[in-house]
């Protein structure tokens, strides 16, 4: 384990995040996100919530400042309270990590899928939380 580094950031995940360049997207999808819609291989994290994964990733991954909404989310067509709570928490974690207000845009399934195919890294969280997914756009350090 590295000092001051979340144990959630496995070697494979760190390599994948390190390989990104400004403008790249990282996708985080919950176990409830339709697996057939994930466009490429994923890194799987078990026993990790979306909130914990976002917090760990954003400790090493800067969000774009030139994008008014560097986070995109997908929630079920009729999201339940758990899904909206997760989205609210993710936005709060991003604001805390960046020390600024962060915009988040919620997309339909089709629009999210169209953008998700551009993600260079997809992290699938094998959790039982509500179905949801997020895209994070990288900025400069």
Topology of this protein?
Blueprint: H1 11-18, E1 25-30, E2 43-46, H2 50-58, E3 71-75, H3 81-98, E4 104-107, H4 109-116, E5 121-126, E6 132-137
Parallel strand pairs: 1-5, 2-5, 3-4
Antiparallel strand pairs: 1-6, 3-6
Could you characterize what this model shows?
The protein has 141 residues and is of the alpha/beta class. It is built from 4 helices and 6 strands, in the order H-E-E-H-E-H-E-H-E-E. It has a 6-stranded mixed beta sheet with strand order 2-5-1-6-3-4. Helix 2 (50-58) packs parallel to helix 3. The mean pLDDT is 90.
Number of helices: 4
* C-alpha Rg (nearest Å): 14 Å
Structural class: alpha/beta
- Total strand segments: 6
Helix content: 25-40%
Distance between the termini: 24 Å
The outline comes out as globular
- Helix and strand sequence: HEEHEHEHEE
**Which segments are poorly predicted (pLDDT under 50) over 5 or more consecutive residues?**
none
- Beta percentage is 15-25%
The main sheet orders its strands as 2-5-1-6-3-4
Mean pLDDT: 90
Characterize the main sheet. 6 strands, mixed
Give a quick precis of the structure.
With 141 residues, the protein is of the alpha/beta class.
């Amino acid at each position: 384990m590295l000092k001051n580094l979340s144990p959630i950031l496995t070697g494979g995940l760190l390599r994948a995040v390190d390989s990104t360049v400004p403008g790249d997207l990282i996708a985080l999808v919950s176990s409830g996100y339709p697996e057939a819609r994930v466009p490429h291989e994923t890194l799987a994290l078990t026993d990790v919530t979306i909130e914990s994964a976002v917090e760990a990733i954003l400790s090493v991954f800067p969000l774009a400042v030139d994008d008014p909404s560097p986070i995109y989310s997908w929630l079920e067509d009729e999201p339940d309270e758990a899904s909206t709570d997760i989205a609210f928490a993710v936005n709060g974690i991003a604001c805390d990590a960046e020390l600024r207000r962060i915009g988040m845009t919620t997309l339909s399934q089709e629009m999210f899928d169209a953008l998700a195919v551009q993600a260079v890294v997809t992290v699938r969280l094998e959790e039982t939380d509500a179905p949801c997914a997020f895209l994070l756009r990288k900025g400069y350090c």
